[in-house]
Design goal:
Shape: elongated
Largest sheet: 5 strands, parallel
Strand content: 15-25%
Bound molecules: arginine
CATH architecture of the largest domain: Alpha-Beta Complex
CATH topology of the largest domain: Argininosuccinate synthetase, chain A, domain 2
CATH class of the largest domain: Alpha Beta
CATH superfamily of the largest domain: Argininosuccinate synthetase, chain A, domain 2
Number of strands: 14
Structural class: alpha/beta
């Protein structure tokens, strides 16, 4: 019998996909990745088996997700189109990597996912599988099956006794993991309409956030966060703690009309409280520690790096080469940043580092000033010389 490993989320699409693949003659093995979405995995396992899966793999990938995917993106300051911290995009190559590993273990020739034909995620899954295991065949049931609407799919589920959670039309499409929540569809499809309060899943409204600001100190070592308020925390605990504190202060809400890889513009909102705090603190520390040219050049690299993540090219040669550059820039990035959270804002208000390049005696306007202002005159003449219009 043909074996297929399906990336299973537990939603309507992937539940129907199990049955649909089975009807097409496949033995379906489900793979559930725990990337911090907070689902009840025992329940999902039952649902997969009741939908017709022959076996279910559940893997806790949170640690690997942070170390090998989130942290490299943080070190790179990778932000897509100036706003999106790439939570969904970062999880896809990791999930695809495990699809491939399980397919090898199970000697399966096929892998499958539940993405539609309009989004980025299909590209990310398939490009990754193609890079890691070019011989594996990929099936995308949602892209090819006969159901024309969600209603038809629900009818199919009922007819085939597929356990589904809510038959009512879900107002939003939500993807959640440790690094953030992505929310689209429904009322959000009107780019002019303000997102309704209920669309946000984890963050408080700024209006309802505490009236007192909260200060945090984040200690970084070689570009990675290690301590929160002087307390060493493992990376999972640290991100969970920052998500909680940030969410309370309405930090990390993003509203974006973005350019999808497949050519469509779409409006999506995001919540990434820990990401917002860590990105601003990390970038701020770079301001103190990195030399001007490295810092400016790194901005160009960040832009490209964010595109590579968004486009699903995590395992590309260029991404690996850029990692070498980024890691080099992080060698001295040790120090502490103090941030202030208040009603949706996260502002860095203090920073210190043993590797700081800040020299008070050069910057000061006070009497300790050691900067020789007379030298500026010659510098400006020579600096501006080649830009003069007429001789
Ligand atoms: N637009 C984001 C991306 O391409 C998120 C996609 C998934 N969003 C969702 N609500 N299911 O990375």
């Amino acid at each position: 019998m043909k074996k297929v490993i399906l990336a299973y989320s537990g939603g309507l699409d992937t539940s129907c996909a199990i049955k649909w693949l089975k009807d097409k003659g496949y033995q379906v093995i489900c793979f559930i990745a725990d990337v911090g979405q907070g689902d009840d995995f025992t329940l999902l396992e039952k649902r997969a088996l009741n939908s017709g899966a022959s076996k279910v793999y559940i893997q806790d990938l949170k640690g690997e997700f942070i170390q090998d995917f989130i942290f490299p993106a943080l070190k790179a300051n990778a932000i897509y189109e100036g706003k999106y911290l790439l939570a969904t995009a970062l999880s896809r190559p990791l999930i695809a990597k495990y699809l491939v590993a399980i397919a090898n273990k199970e000697k399966a020739d096929f892998v499958a996912h539940g993405c539609t034909g309009k989004g980025n995620d299909q590209v990310r899954f398939e490009v990754t599988v193609n890079i890691l295991a070019p011989k594996l065949e990929i099936i995308a049931p949602v892209r090819i099956w006969e159901f024309k609407s969600r209603q038809e799919e629900i009818e199919y589920a009922k007819e085939k006794n597929i356990p589904i959670v809510a038959t009512k039309e879900k107002p939003y499409s939500i993807d959640k993991n440790l690094w953030g929540v992505s929310i689209e569809c429904g009322k959000l499809e009107d780019p002019w309409a303000e997102p309704p309060g209920e669309a946000y899943q984890i963050t408080k409204k700024p209006e309802e956030a505490p009236n007192q600001p909260e200060y945090l100190e984040i200690y970084f070592e070689e570009g990675l966060p290690k301590k929160l308020n002087n307390k060493a925390l493992n990376s999972i605990k640290l991100i969970e703690a920052l998500n909680k504190i940030g969410a309370k202060h309405a930090v990390g809400r993003i509203d974006l009309v973005e350019n999808r890889l497949v050519g469509i513009k779409s409006r999506e909102i995001y919540e990434a409280p820990a990401g917002a705090i860590l990105y601003s603190a990390h970038k701020d520390l770079e301001g103190l520690v990195l030399d001007r040219e490295v810092s400016h050049f790194k901005e160009i690299i960040s832009l490209k790096y964010s595109e590579l993540i968004y486009y699903g090219l995590w395992y590309s040669q260029l991404k690996q080469a850029l990692d070498e550059f980024i890691d080099k820039t992080q060698e001295n990035l040790t120090g502490t940043v103090r941030v202030k959270l208040y009603k949706g804002n996260c502002v860095c208000v203090g920073r210190k580092s043993p590797n700081s390049l800040y020299k008070k005696e050069l910057a000061t306007y006070g009497k300790e000033d050691k900067f020789n202002q007379k030298l500026a005159e010659g510098f400006i003449k020579i600096f501006g010389m080649s830009h003069q219009s007429k001789g």
